[in-house]
Write a structure and sequence with these properties.
Length: 100
């Protein structure tokens, strides 16, 4: 059973490193990973469970293992890449919800 836990943790750490996360803090058995120029932090426990925090230290996701991590990173990328309302379109939207 211990070998399974080590493999899960090793796989998660490898996945974080592949996504350019680097360890920045260690407290007890937990390690915090961050990427340069990004507010997202991932706190990893010894069992491979993790919690992702935004720049305000609010939990944005939790999971266990590399598969959960990839799902969160893909979702975060899709949300960040979603197009915003252009200024021209915004000027055509009235406050009552009817477009001009």
């Amino acid at each position: 059973m211990m070998a399974d836990r080590d493999i899960g943790l090793d796989t998660l750490v490898e996945a974080l490193l592949e996504q350019r996360f680097r360890p920045v803090d260690v407290f007890g058995l937990f390690v915090t990973y961050e990427r340069a120029d990004e507010p997202l932090k991932v706190h990893v426990g010894p069992d491979g469970a993790f919690a992702a925090f935004d720049g305000d230290d609010q939990v944005v996701a939790e999971g266990k293992g590399a598969q959960d991590l990839y799902a969160i990173l893909v979702r975060k990328t899709v949300i960040a890449g979603r197009p915003s309302v252009s200024p021209r379109r915004r000027s055509r939207i009235r406050t009552d919800g009817v477009t001009a």
